[in-house]
Predict the structure.
Amino acid sequence: MNPSDLKIEAVNPHKTGGQTVGMPPPHIRVTHLPTGLVAECSSERSQLKCRKVCEAMIEWGLAEIGWIEP
């Protein structure tokens, strides 16, 4: 999987306020541009962990459709 084929976005949560004010949003959306596959993760507490989960989901999806070898 080529990293230049991925579009990575930080998605703001719908709720704002409280203890999360001023913190970067941990929600990440990764889009594989050639195929249009989208993975979104908000279950982890850090952007890096969410990004790794999203990339693994994209890789799994690409293997499912036969884009890459598993």
Remarks:
- The chain has one domain: 1-9+25-70.
- Residues 1-9+25-70 form a domain with the Double Stranded RNA Binding Domain fold (CATH 3.30.160.20).
